[in-house]
Design goal:
Layout (H helix, E strand, L loop, with lengths): L1 H7 L4 H13 L4 H8 L3 H13 L3 E6 L2 E6 L4 H34 L5 E5 H15 L5 E7 L1 H21 L2 E6 L4 H7 L5 E5 L8 E6 L2 E6 L5 E6 L1 H17 L7
Parallel strand pairs: 4-5, 5-6
Antiparallel strand pairs: 1-2, 3-9, 4-7, 7-8, 8-9
């Protein structure tokens, strides 16, 4: 049982066997450790060196002979903390790499006029990718935000908006008339302005307009995301958005 736990912490099977054998034996030379752990002598010194590097084992020399012993078992917790710190640092590095790779992919994909993504993962990936291209004081326009989408993915949407706000990216969003509760929640964000479609207009789909990109999202059984990258088309949709924005209501009473 202990062996499996130590392996789960990142020790090899040989390291786990040697550590447990040594902890049982106390201060001993290599011979008894090999006998107890059933690890070959040819591997023993390499394993002991690695356990010493991990802070789990130490040794003293008497008359030219090394005697090994385990350190206080509390050092296992120190080893775990070190691994956690290393993992957090690695995560930061990976997140930076992912951002740079995603941005690079966005820039190299600009020659594509249209793209289609299936499923929620595709929708999320595309919106997150486009988010990276937005800078402080840019604005995201959303037309026809449906209630069903918020019911499905509200946690992700709220996280997205928190990060957008922190980045200083503004948003104007026109909700379906039946999504009032979600629209009102968006008003808590400083850079966010909300209106509602008039005359009980309801659509299960919506349109995002970023800089020179238009994102059409069709909320079917699985979402279907259609992306068009074209500046002139994006400008025409922005003009259309302004018309609908003026005709929409700041408050909606069901």
């Amino acid at each position: 049982m202990y062996e499996k736990t130590l392996e789960a912490l990142g020790l090899t099977r040989g390291e786990a066997k040697v550590y447990l054998a040594l902890n049982k034996l106390g201060e001993v030379t290599v011979g008894p450790i090999g006998k107890e752990s059933k690890v070959s002598k040819s591997k023993m010194y390499d394993i002991l060196d690695k356990l010493i590097a991990k802070g789990l084992v130490s040794y003293i020399t008497r008359n030219g002979t090394k005697y090994f012993s385990t350190n206080d078992p509390q050092m296992i917790l120190s080893y775990i903390q070190k691994k956690k710190d290393e993992l957090e640092e690695t995560q930061k590095e990976v997140e930076e790499i992912i951002q740079n790779l995603t941005l690079q992919r966005t820039l190299t994909h600009h020659h594509k006029l249209a793209e289609i993504y299936e499923g929620f993962h595709g929708l999320k990936m595309m919106r997150e990718e486009l988010m990276l291209t937005l800078k402080k004081n840019d604005e995201l326009l959303v037309l026809g935000a449906p209630k069903i989408a918020n019911e499905k993915w509200e946690a992700w949407f709220m996280d997205f908006h928190k990060r957008r706000e922190a980045k200083g990216v503004g948003m104007r969003i026109i909700y379906n008339s039946n999504a009032y509760e979600f629209g009102e929640k968006r008003k808590q964000f400083k850079h966010t302005h909300v209106k509602y479609l008039p005359n009980n207009l309801i659509s299960p789909n919506w349109i995002d307009i970023y800089n020179d990109v238009i994102l059409f999202v069709f909320v079917l059984k699985e979402p279907l995301t259609f992306v068009i990258r074209d500046n002139s088309l994006a400008q025409s949709f922005k003009a259309y958005f302004e018309i609908v924005w003026k005709a929409s209501k700041s408050q909606y009473v069901l």
